[in-house]
Specification:
By secondary structure, this protein is α/β, with parallel strands linked by helices. The protein has helices at 17-28, 44-51, 66-76, 91-99, 111-151, 169-175, 194-208, 276-288, 326-335, 339-357, 367-370, 375-386, 399-404, 406-418, 434-440, 450-453, 460-475, 488-497, and strands spanning 7-12, 33-38, 55-59, 82-86, 104-107, 155-160, 163-167, 217-222, 228-240, 243-250, 265-267, 270-272, 292-301, 309-317, 323-324, 360-364, 393-398, 422-428, 445-448, 479-483, 501-503, 511-512.
């Protein structure tokens, strides 16, 4: 092969003889590479930049030149491997050369090993180039998809392993939701009326297997106001972050909302949604009639040891028994002073479930409750009345809440530890100052945000970020939980990084928390002690309302 087409190598040596010997060795073994002689170290920076070599070889009798060559290489071309060739080698000289920055050290009198090592390093470089090209291609493809999602007038949701991982603005508008985070990580089925589930599951499975007939599927999509809208849904298969996915698409001309009979009344001007006050009254009625329920999802320890742990999620059911997701009612609950009542319902119910199961339940707390001075004495009485081991509950708030109210959350964490409860930060790692929180807030666990976990295997930069969080948390004795870990490749990578727990549909989908089962002696939660009907919008009295009275 002509030298102009050969892979460039640089050989640093005192004479040209080793260069000629190496060129001859490579030609005999049909290696398409050419060695360029470097007689002086002062020319190394310019030669590295000009030739962009695939391998740097230092022929040295003592190895004394290696540290200086390695420093220049590290500054200008850190990815280029450095190979040392000596007159003779032994275990000590090989270890010394590799300690100076060489990838290997071989003897000049053993051409077979010289060839084997050069061939190995060139192959590794070729593999590295192909991998980077594939990553660039994948990143370009993802950017194109993201652009399509952003600009499309069609309503588009992306589901992986049955979980929503991306929605565009048109989809949010269709559901009447303003925050995409309210949908991310939710099962795709939870976005649709139960009457649609069977047909939709079949269509998604067929799409994943390449058997979907591309015909539109009529579905009933749940909306933020507690109603539903009939849509014509198109499915298409694709890939996201190297993993298969299904695109749920409602074409723009077909997505005009039609109000259901339960959620609105018709007038001459079209469909009317219930007012926010009506939604607030529905939440109050659900509290009074005990129509909230908890679902739980295992938090799986990768070594299989320790106390069983579960994440708890909230659901509300309307008067007909239809399930409503928190994204559809929690913003209204926050604006109408109902969120503390819901938080305490969750804590009370989770405490009874933990007493029954013997495991540890993670309970999310709103910012309002986290900063509520009456919470701690209420929790003390709750634990005493149930004779519950405090280690059975872990209270969690989001990293965003901790960042915004650092002093208040630090005090809350310490107060919870004083009565034996555990404390965690959820959606952790998305902020640039995340690691500083590990140093300030007394924590038992962090839940690494799903945005860092999705696409982890295809993103070296995400891997570096997650690895840094895990190492810092481990040094401080803080447990690490990966949110939305939904495929085996990601699980294996997290294991290597030292993550201790996984939470996601790879382990198990959410299931109902069951209370009062045979033999437990527990009853369903008693809400007689909670005030719900007297909750007022924009409560500014300073007196806590709408929760279990102390």
């Amino acid at each position: 092969m002509p030298d102009t087409a050969a892979v460039p190598l640089i050989v640093a040596s005192a004479t040209v003889d080793p260069v000629e010997a190496l060129n001859s060795l490579l030609r005999r073994n049909a290696v398409a590479a050419h060695c360029t002689w470097l007689a002086s170290l002062k020319n190394l920076p310019e030669t590295l930049q000009r030739l962009n070599p695939q391998l740097l070889i230092c022929v040295t009798p003592t190895g004394n030149e290696l540290p200086a060559i390695a420093r220049v290489r590290n500054r200008i071309a850190p990815d280029v491997p450095l190979l040392a060739i000596r007159p003779e080698t032994n275990d000590w000289t090989i270890a010394s050369d590799m300690g100076s920055g060489a990838c290997d050290s071989v003897a000049m009198n053993c051409p077979e090993r010289i060839y084997a090592v050069i061939a190995r390093e060139l192959k590794a470089r070729q593999t590295q180039r192909e991998l980077r090209a594939a990553l660039r291609s994948a990143q370009d493809y993802r950017q194109q998809l993201d652009t399509l999602l952003t600009l499309s007038n069609d309503a588009i949701a992306v589901a992986q392993e049955g979980i929503i991982t991306r929605v565009n603005a048109s989809w949010l508008m269709l559901m009447g939701i303003t925050d995409a985070n309210a949908l991310l990580g939710q099962p795709a089925m939870d976005l649709f009326n139960e009457s649609t589930h069977a047909a939709l599951r079949t269509a998604i499975a067929a799409c994943q297997q390449g058997r979907h007939d591309a015909l539109p599927l009529r579905a009933s999509l749940l909306t933020q106001d507690g109603g539903s809208t009939d849509v014509e849904l198109m499915l298409s298969s694709g890939q996201r972050d190297g993993e298969p996915c299904v695109h749920l698409i409602v074409p723009a001309p077909a997505r005009r909302p039609r109000a259901s009979s339960r959620s609105a009344t018709r007038t001459d001007t079209g469909a009317q949604s219930p007012s926010e006050d009506t939604t607030a009254k529905q939440i109050s009625a659900a509290l009074q009639q005990n129509r909230f329920r908890l679902v739980q999802q295992p938090i799986t320890r990768l070594d299989g040891e320790g106390l069983p742990m579960f994440d708890t999620l909230l659901r509300m059911t309307d008067a007909t028994g239809r399930q409503i997701l928190p994204a559809s009612f929690m913003p209204v609950a926050e604006r109408h002073g109902l969120v503390r009542a819901i938080d305490r319902w969750m804590l009370h119910t989770a405490a009874r479930a933990a007493h029954d199961s013997g495991g540890c339940l993670f309970v999310p707390l709103s910012q309002v409750s986290a900063l509520d001075a009456t919470l701690l004495p209420w929790l003390r009485k709750l634990l005493a009345s149930m004779q519950l081991d405090p280690q059975r509950l872990c209270i969690e708030v989001t990293e965003a809440t901790a960042t915004t109210h650092l002093n208040g959350i630090c005090k809350l964490a310490q107060d919870l530890h004083d009565i034996g409860l555990r404390f965690a930060l959820a959606a952790f790692g998305a902020d640039v100052d995340s690691i500083q929180l590990l140093e300030r807030v007394p924590l038992d666990f962090i839940k690494i945000d799903g945005s860092l976990i999705r696409g982890l295997s295809a993103s070296p930069s995400q891997q570096d970020d997650v690895r840094a969080l895990v190492e810092t948390a481990s040094q401080r004795g803080i447990g690490t939980i990966a949110e939305r870990a939904d495929n085996a490749n990601t699980m294996a990578l997290l294991w290597k990084m030292g993550v201790q727990y996984l939470q996601g549909h790879l382990t198990q989908a959410p299931e109902d928390v069951r209370l009062g089962v045979t033999g437990t002696g527990l009853r369903p939660p008693d809400l007689a002690g909670i005030e719900t009907s007297g909750i007022h919008k924009n409560n500014d009295s300073g007196e806590p309302q709408g929760f279990f009275r102390d």
